[in-house]
Design brief:
This protein is an alpha/beta fold and about 325 residues long. The protein folds into 2 domains: about 200 residues, Rossmann fold, CATH 3.40.50; about 90 residues, UDP-galactose 4-epimerase, domain 1. It contains 11 helices and 13 strands. Strands 3-2-1-4-5-6-11 form a 7-stranded parallel β-sheet, with helices on both faces. α1 links the parallel β1 and β2. The longest helix is centred in the N-terminal third of the chain and has 22 residues. The radius of gyration is 19 Å and the shape is globular.
Length: about 325
């Protein structure tokens, strides 16, 4: 039985990846930063409520080299998926140093622990399409990076550190350059979930307006379930890879609003207000993936369409409020 360690297991991607690996008969371990919150109320709560729990949780932090070293030494995992990060782009402008320490240097702390303990451990780094920033689409593995936020800058540092450890020490270390991926488990601080979670409150009158920033920003949006499948496939490849993972389609925030409000037959323009506080100091205007290499090397393609993704998110938030779509 293979053993996998997932940092950031309580996040959207971590929870879906844990389920995927369990379905493939892995022994799954995950990290959390603190036990001050009820772990069973997180996205992996359903995997912990069984007897025995289906995943094992460890308290550690990407800012603590010693705890990471102990964890790698104790577990000796076959695969490590580094999904933990300060992952909110807008918040990274307010917390640039923290973002750099966790999202950037945190990856190096984990790589160093693997290098010192067992270089046969395979490593996956969650890289981001935000690294491309201002570079025109479509973006593929050869597209130059032009990061436009502290978050993206930190991700570029982690990306090149992963490659450096691969080249310097022979680690099977891969970067998945994932474009935006969403689901009903997406945090409500992200624009897609902010939209879908507001719809039931707008319907009930508990919320009057939905305040958003740049509606013309375009993103390549896919489903997180598809993308965690790509993460696993990358680490099964004989050689380490750096792959762009997306859908090959781009949609604006306005397009997302169209699809989301169509589920409840409402005109979003009657509810949405533009608020300058939600604009970034530097905007990323247009991201669209070219996934030719992923299709050719690991045979990965997305299976869930943009329309299906949006409908699932809206329906889930409606059902959470006892509303039938």
């Amino acid at each position: 039985m293979k053993r996998a360690l997932i940092t950031g297991i309580t996040g959207q991607d971590g929870s879906y990846l844990a389920e995927h690996l369990l379905d493939m008969d892995y022994e799954v371990h995950g990290t959390i930063r603190t036990t001050t919150h009820d772990i069973e109320e997180t996205r992996v709560g359903h995997l912990l409520s069984t007897d025995p729990p289906r995943v094992k949780i460890h308290v550690t932090d990407l800012g603590d080299s010693h705890s990471l070293m102990r964890l790698i030494t104790d577990l000796r995992p076959d695969e490590v998926y580094n999904l933990a990060a300060q992952s909110h782009v807008r918040a990274s402008f307010d917390q640039p140093i923290h973002t750099g320490q966790v999202t950037g240097i945190g990856a190096v702390r984990l790589l160093e622990a693997i290098r010192q303990e067992d270089t046969s451990t395979r490593f996956y780094q969650a890289s981001s399409s935000e690294m491309f920033g201002a570079t025109p689409p479509p973006q593929d593995e050869t597209t130059p990076f032009h990061p436009r936020s502290p978050y993206a800058v930190a991700k570029v540092y982690a990306y090149w550190s992963t490659i450096n450890y691969r080249e310097a020490y022979g680690l099977h270390a891969s970067n998945g350059i994932l474009f935006n991926h969403e689901s009903p488990r997406r945090g409500k601080e992200f624009v897609t979930r902010k939209i879908t979670s507001s719809i039931p409150r707008l319907l009930t009158g508990d919320q009057e307006k939905l305040r958003l920033g740049n509606l013309e920003a375009r993103r390549d949006w896919g489903h997180a379930r598809d993308y965690v499948r790509a993460m696993h496939m990358m680490l099964q490849h004989p050689e380490p890879l750096d792959l762009v993972i997306g859908t090959g389609e781009s949609h604006s925030v306005s397009d997302f609003l169209d699809a989301a409000f169509a589920v409840v037959n409402l005109d979003w323009s009657e509810y949405v207000e533009i608020d300058s506080q939600f604009y970034r100091p530097t905007e990323v205007d247009y991201l669209e993936a070219d996934i030719s290499k992923a299709a050719a090397t690991i045979g990965w393609k997305p299976t869930i369409s943009f329309e299906e993704l949006v409908a699932e998110m809206v329906t889930s938030d409606l059902e959470a409020h006892g509303i039938t779509a």
